[in-house]
Amino acid sequence: MAQSAVPSAAQPRESAAEPRPVPLRLPVREVLPWAVFAVVLGAVLIYFVGAEQGATSLFGGTWVHEFTHDGRHLLGFPCH
Amino acid sequence: MMRSLLVRGMAVGLAAGALALLVAWLYGEPQVGHAIAFEEAKAHAAHEAHEAEVVSRTTQKTAGLITAMAVYGVALGGLFSIAFAFAYGRLGALGARATAGLVALAGFVAVELVPFLKYPATPPAVGNPGTIGSRTTLYFGMTLLGILATTAAVIVCRRLVPRLGVWNASIATGAGFAVVVAAVYRITPKPDAIPEHFPATVLWDFRIASLGVQAVLWATLGLAFGYLTERAFAKRRTATAPA
């Protein structure tokens, strides 16, 4: 990216980043285990906020449904 | 590297959830209140027994809503950081801020906009409890379609860029995405049950508030995550640059 001619002494942090390097890539091999774990955990968390004791129930009763009731409606999940 | 991105994603997700909570309180809760008042007036007119409260309204509005927003924000933030890790350095020469902004925009379209346009958020009293099973399936199915179609669009766009250039490749994939989503909208059922005399303004305001909650959540996630990551990368470069 072209940068305007600013006196380099004025902004040492900016000048250190110049010339702008090509962004590094994180190898897929390194990201994949985190990705699998995060997707599994994220899915479980979002399920409990958005759907438990609605169409499907893992626990009996309606407490989870009622407790997260307003969040479900406002986040856009089908509630009841 | 991945560790710091994930921690940052969850922290920013929590902050995004807090801002979304503010929007939910200011704009969403009044409409939820109107909808519940309508529901109770209807039940009263039909001489139905008052539903036993499992959780009080006050708890739903405070602890319940805070918990839901916090958990949702942290989960989304963590997933966002993973998506960012895959995207960074693979979308041309975009920096951290621009990559985070684009990932947030794509996430908002995939997870919120695509399902919302067909199955918008509904306030209490709207929706037939008998169809909750099919509505839940359709809603999550539409979310899945949004994620798959958006991922496919990004992959196709990257392949078209060398031949068409960034501008034309983006238009072509954007148009293709819209056609696919519109075709699915046309063939999926719409089990929307709005009770008679439900105030249209409450329904509209509730849906706009819900969209606003999600927009603030995703915008905060994308912008704050991008800003913090760009700053962290600049520090690393300064630290590792030869003196």
TrEMBL record, chain A:
Organism: Actinomadura yumaensis
Name listed for the protein in its UniProt record: CbtB domain-containing protein
Pfam families: CbtB
Keywords: Membrane, Transmembrane, Transmembrane helix
Residue spans crossing the bilayer: 31-49
Matches recorded under InterPro entries: CbtB_put
UniProtKB/TrEMBL annotation, chain B:
Parts forming coiled coils: none
Keyword check for Nucleus: no
TM regions (residue ranges): 65-88, 100-117, 137-157, 164-188, 208-228
Keywords attached to this entry: Membrane, Transmembrane, Transmembrane helix
Pfam families: CbtA (PF09490)
Highest taxon of the lineage: Bacteria
Protein name per its UniProtKB record: CbtA family protein
